Amino acid sequence: MTPGVGFASACTAGELEALVREVLAEAHAVLRAGGGEAIEIWQLAAPGHKGDSPVLWTAARDLELEPVFASAAALAARDAALSTDSARSRAVAGVGSVAEAAALAVAGDGARLLLPRRLSARASCAVAVRTVNGTDELFEEG
Fold first, then answer.
1. Are strands 2-7 and 123-132 parallel, antiparallel or unpaired?
2. Which residues make beta-bridge pairs with 47?
3. By 3-state DSSP, what share of the chain in percent is helix, strand and coil, each rounded to 5?
């Protein structure tokens, strides 16, 4: 399971962290409702253009997740699979949802959205899982 994020420059690390925690709690609830168990998450997916953001690095540290960055090309390659088409996201990053595209790109081949984009005032978060042979591969290698 891979959470992906997008956020405005005015976003704080606290806001981003709170949104990711809220979305991961929702993702775990969805999995439990489907008969799954709690999942360990190792990575936090983000667009490459946010690689030098102290907000992202602080939130990732506080969440105990490794930031992994998707290039603009990797984000664009996932655009057709997105469930959200935000004009703002498209103008800034060329895709309908930065959070969804980052989650899918970092989750890898066979990934699908478990949760589409969720929003706070200045951030977005989505969760992807990778499907292998028709089964969701929910554990990340650490």
1. antiparallel
2. 70
3. 40, 25, 30
